[in-house]
Amino acid sequence: MRYFLPLLLTAVLSFGVASSVNAQCKNFTKKECIPTLKPYTYNGQYNNAVLAEGDVAELLLTFHKDQKYRVSVCSEEIIGNVNFKIFDTKHQLIFDQSQNSDQSFWDFVSNATQQLIIQVTVPVEIPKNEVVKTGCVTILVGFLDE
Asked: What pTM value is reported for the model?
């Protein structure tokens, strides 16, 4: 019993912090990221995470044949502009945002129903003896209604 109460308290506090961070990401996504999809229609899926400098994250998404899409990657200012690349499932590079004028989105027509991997990299800008910064990163998908 002596160990149970501190463990329970830690679990409750951790859940509260995780819920708070998730709510912050959701609010950031609604306010800052969804508007970047216009004139595309937001597909309604939240794909966000709190990442730190130097982190790399991947997300596998399905795209349907002959549909026009916009993939938008949005990050909180504290972690700077993240870089993103898009690969097919064989890890062949399809799009590299850093090679395309640093825009935060990619518009394309899917030539087949396929799964693509969106890889996000948070840049490292850590001066010596400084705390690693973390922030929300969101990947959104929009489509054109025609």
From this structure: 0.80
